[in-house]
Amino acid sequence: MAGHARTSYVCLPCRASYKQRYGPERARVCPRCAGRLLHAGSAFAPPRRRDVVAWRVLSVLLHAGVGFHKSCCGGPGFRPRSRREVRERISHVRRTGLPYARALTLPDVP
Q1: Which end of the chain is more exposed for a tag (fewer CB within 10 A), N or C?
Q2: Angle between the 52-63 and 83-96 helix axes, to the nearest 10 degrees?
Q3: pTM (2 decimals)?
Q4: How far from 27 is each of 19, 61, 68, 102, 108, CA to CA, in Å?
Q5: Which strands, in side-by-side order, build the sheet including 38-41?
Q6: What parts of the chain have a pLDDT lower than 50?
Q7: pLDDT of residue 57
Q8: Whole-Å CA distances, 42 to 20, 21, 33, 55, 83
Q9: Pick from 105, 90, 98, 92: which is nearest to 43 by CA?
Q10: How far is CA 34 from the centre of its chain?
């Protein structure tokens, strides 16, 4: 029997990540706080729990619909790592009307 792919689910309030089988058929619940887990993707690498800034950036990305999914061998592609990078991309959205998820994944913003 072939194994099922495992992917990451994240609890933002607990700043925790859990690998589980992928499947949208059931709601995922955090074992720490019983809150809802968000699907982050199979190429997700969680920041350290004490890195509050990185978790805030991650929250913006996940709520905008940006995931960390494998794109063949290259990984998920560019993702902002600082609040400054997020602010630059959000101002780009306001100037151009580009969707948030697309602007957050651009490697260079003019």
Answers
A1: N
A2: 30
A3: 0.75
A4: 14, 20, 19, 26, 36
A5: 16-21, 6-11, 38-41
A6: 1-3
A7: 92
A8: 10, 10, 23, 18, 24
A9: 105
A10: 20
Task: Kindly state the tokens that stand for 24.
Answer: 């949208």
CA distances 104 to 48, 107, 110, Å, are 21, 8, 13
List, in sequence order, the alpha helices (H) in the chain.
Answer: 52-63, 83-96, 100-104
pLDDT for the residue 10 = 96
What letter would DSSP give residue 35? P
- Angle of CA points 50, 13, 61, to nearest 5°: 85
Q: Give, as one character, the DSSP assignment of residue 13.
A: T
What's the rounded Cα separation, in Å, for the pair 13 and 19? 17
Q: Please provide the size of the chain in residues.
A: 110
Say which amino acid occupies 109. Answer: V
